[in-house]
Known about the structure:
The chain is mostly helical. It contains four helices and no strands. It has a domain at 1-53.
Amino acid sequence: MSLQELRKQIYNLSVMERLALMEAIAQSLQQELRPRPDQAARMGALTRLRGMAKTDEPSPTDAEATEAYVDYLMEKYK
């Protein structure tokens, strides 16, 4: 169907159908025009986030983590 034929057919639709069509067109344009970050940019951000969480100290053991969590809960629910 050509653009001219489509334009003619639009006038045969009800107002609600035209509004629905307009919304569908707007959504399709929004999806196409939305910038998509490339894979390298996303991986770079992930690497930077990992670096923020990294410490010089060793990770706590399970027992230490459990103890810290219990202490947190005890303090929270005093």
